[in-house]
Design a protein that fits this description.
The chain has 229 residues and is of the alpha+beta class. It folds into 2 domains: 11-114, 2-Layer Sandwich (Zincin-like); 136-222, Urease metallochaperone UreE, N-terminal domain (HSP40/DNAj peptide-binding domain, Sandwich). The chain contains 5 helices and 12 strands. The strands form 4 sheets. It has a 5-stranded mixed sheet with strand order 4-5-6-12-9. It has a 3-stranded mixed sheet with strand order 1-3-2. A hairpin with a 2-residue loop joins strand 7 and strand 8 (184-189). It starts with 10 loop residues before the first helix and ends in a 7-residue tail after the last strand.
Length: 229
């Protein structure tokens, strides 16, 4: 029999759980964190209403740079509630722990001058903007995880990059072009429009033997490689 998803906690219970998770993290990792603030409100991305902000690591005002920097961790109960309504098997405890650990990692990396996590958040945000039909950096996926020379992953979405010259892209526009993904080779139609970066959504995406799935895109790029972040 399938278990029912856990019921949403009250704000007071959520706050107690958040403080417990925070205090269970070794003090060494919490060094320089002024405290944890749990808010009842929902916070979303300023341009993406469905992109919930579960937590934030906010630098304290008038503090130093690098290892002298202090921060405050903020967690938003309303955002958890909103996300739980959309996800049938929402893991309250797991998401809360992951959020607090994520924001503490932000603090640690910011103090060390390491921007890796900021880049991860940025590339995920750009992917959400793409899905929402909003403007996005067309080569954002290059900041994602590179599994093969021309294969990039952002969360569960895969982007297969095909680099050609501008003349070749103009010549191929509207024609079928072979693409290989894993052990499979298939044909896609090169878009006639889209400038130097042209996306093709592969219908059905990708699905592995364990049932995991995501979107699959072929991206035709004219010119040299470059990154914006």
């Amino acid at each position: 029999m399938r278990e029912s998803p856990p019921l949403a906690p009250s704000f007071e219970e959520f706050e107690r759980n958040a403080r417990r998770v925070f205090e269970e993290i070794p003090a060494t990792f919490r060094e320089g964190i002024s405290g944890l603030v749990v808010h009842s409100k929902r916070v979303t991305h300023p341009h993406l209403d469905d992109y919930e902000t579960l937590g934030e690591c906010v630098p304290d005002l008038l503090t130093g740079e690098g290892s002298e920097r202090t921060s405050t961790i903020h967690v938003y109960f309303g955002s958890f509630v909103s996300l739980a309504r959309r996800e049938e098997e929402f893991d309250w405890a797991g998401e809360l722990k992951e959020t607090i650990e994520h924001e503490i990692r932000h603090h640690i990396e910011d103090r060390a001058g390491a921007p890796d996590l900021r880049k991860e958040d940025w590339v995920s945000e750009q992917n959400e903007r793409r899905r929402a039909g909003q403007s996005f950096d067309p080569l954002f996926f290059e900041v994602g995880e590179q599994a093969q020379p021309d294969e990039y992953w952002v969360d569960d979405d895969c982007f297969l990059e095909v680099r050609v010259t501008k003349k070749a892209l103009a010549r191929l526009a509207g024609m079928s072009h072979p693409v290989t993904f894993g052990e499979q080779t298939f044909e896609v139609i090169v878009p006639k429009e889209g400038g130097d970066v042209r996306y093709v959504n592969v219908e059905g995406g990708w699905v592995d033997d364990d049932g995991y799935a995501g979107e699959l895109h072929v991206v035709f790029v004219a010119g040299g490689s470059w990154l914006r972040k």
